[in-house]
Automatic annotation (TrEMBL):
Name this protein carries in UniProt: Phosphatase (Active on GMP and Glc-6-P)
InterPro entries: HAD-like_sf, HAD-SF_hydro_IIIA, HAD_sf, PGPP1/Gep4
Principal EC category: hydrolase
One matching Pfam family: Hydrolase
Organism whose genome encodes this protein: Exiguobacterium oxidotolerans
Tree of life domain: Bacteria
Keywords, in A-Z order: Hydrolase
Gene from which this protein is expressed: yqeG
A molecular function GO annotation: phosphatidylglycerophosphatase activity
EC number: 3.1.3.-
Length: 194
């Protein structure tokens, strides 16, 4: 029952994704959530860092990028159009419909794509249920809508389980500030004590 909530990989941000590895594994397109995965949920336009990353993903690696978002079509269109990205919205994740539409509309098999998302109960559950591998991205910001807040609570339980089972291995290339590291070690200790 829990397995469908487990991502294949965990990264701190999209910028930590090993694109070379995806290429080697035959990935042709990147399907991705928008809010809190690519940018904070209240950010309307792509920051420069994201624009250059997308440019590298498209032009250097040749990956197609398709946004699959539960947000309304208007928000997603305004974000995606200036970047020339395809999108499916509202996708109604975790239902399979949006993922399947992305695959059929753009002509990909589930094994030829990966999904990037920040939520276990929408992104990960939905993509896994149609056989798409998921890379979990830590949410860009911690603030969220009310529904998401409840999901985050449930997610914490699943994350604890994944940590216990040794499934959770975070890829993070950016060097942490020593102080942040200390805080993380402390919170891990607290987790263990509970
Ligand atoms: Mg999201």
């Amino acid at each position: 029952m829990f397995k469908r909530l487990y991502p294949k990989h965990f990264v701190a941000s999209i910028y930590d994704i090993d694109l070379e590895m995806l290429k080697r594994n035959g990935v042709k397109a990147i399907l991705t959530d928008l809010d809190n995965t690519l940018v904070a949920w209240d950010i309307a336009d792509a920051p420069d860092e994201l624009v250059s990353w997308l440019d590298m993903v498209n032009n250097q690696y040749g990956f197609d990028v398709i946004i699959v978002s539960n947000n309304n079509g208007d928000r997603v269109k305004k974000f995606a159009d200036p970047l020339g990205l395809h999108y499916i919205a509202p996708a109604r994740k975790p239902l399979p419909i949006g993922f399947k539409r992305a695959l059929t509309e753009f002509g990909y098999h589930a094994k030829e794509v990966v999904f990037l998302g920040d939520q276990l109960f929408t992104d990960v559950l939905g993509a896994n249920s149609v056989g798409i591998e998921v890379i979990h991205v830590q949410p860009v910001v911690k603030t969220d809508g009310v529904v998401t807040k409840f999901n985050r609570l449930m997610e914490r339980l699943v994350f604890r389980r994944m940590k216990r089972k040794g499934i959770y291995k975070l890829t993070q290339r950016v060097k942490e500030e020593p102080e942040t590291e200390k805080r993380q070690v402390e919170s891990l200790r607290q987790d263990k004590q509970q």
